[in-house]
Amino acid sequence: MTAPTNWDDLRLFLAVAEQGSLSAAARLLKLGQATLSRRMAEFEASLGEPVFERSTQGVQLTPMGRKLLPSAQAMAVWAAEAQVQHSGSRHASAMQGKVRVAAPPSIAYDFLAPMAADIRKAHPGLQIDVLSSVKLLNLSRGEADIALRTFAPQDPDLLCLDSISAPIKAYASHTYAQSLPAHYEAKDLDWICWAAPYDEVQINQELRALIPNFKAAFTSDDHNVQFAACRAGVGALLMAQVQHRYTQLGQLCALPLDFGPRAVGQLHMVCHKRTAELSPVVAVRAFISAEFAYMRTQQALHGIHLEPRAP
């Protein structure tokens, strides 16, 4: 196989991969579909194997296409960075590009989604792509630019740029809390938890360790559904006691249960070395770090003393 060196070919390949069809990519690129199809066929011939499987529904990446995609995405980011540097300005109006941030569903919902409005006000040329999943994405393969993770990275190519800790508390609707008997314990509550295939996450493990023969009252594989059930009064939900400015925990009340020193949530901002200093990534990192700093200030004001793990 001959290694591709033509950025223009990779740019066209990336457009087709992201748009999902030759026709959509051709419209985006302002090219004729026949021209784009011919260019992709020539590109595949230079590689010696196809990068797309074509069908009436669009295109799907082949194994070669999936292997090539992270490199093409990284080159697109660096091309945008070069354009910013060439313009001689890092002003907000010059900031362009997509920043993909991977995070657990609760963080994506309660933290990143509302923060995106402020990022876009400061940098309207940025596209924020939030990848909400319990699944761990691979930063080395370019599956995301920034990851918010509940544990520090071990890979030497990954940088832990900031960390925050928060106690794990039980939350419930005000109506549900008022229905509880006096002097209740964790075993007396109706618990909302993760369903399969995520039933081994930390929250579920904490409850199984705490309550003999634990059985959840309500489960879902979607955090939004869990939060909605909690808000509706189905039961209690374990979550980190976050103090950031975007939190929706004000819709619920914290129950006065002590889960001990083990019940501490960690959140680490992680980047790969090769992308950590790209201008769009740095811009988004700055917003996340500012909110982490705000949370630490709020914890100090409320007498919460939890040291994050060292990066």
TrEMBL record:
One of its GO terms (molecular function) is DNA-binding transcription factor activity. SUPFAM superfamilies: Periplasmic binding protein-like II, Winged helix' DNA-binding domain. InterPro entries: LysR-type_TF_proteobact-type, LysR_HTH_N, LysR_subst-bd, WH-like_DNA-bd_sf, WH_DNA-bd_sf. Pfam families: HTH_1, LysR_substrate. Residues 5-62 form the HTH lysR-type domain. Keywords: DNA-binding, Transcription, Transcription regulation. The keyword Transcription regulation applies. GO terms for biological process: DNA-templated transcription. Belongs to the LysR transcriptional regulatory family. This is LysR family transcriptional regulator.
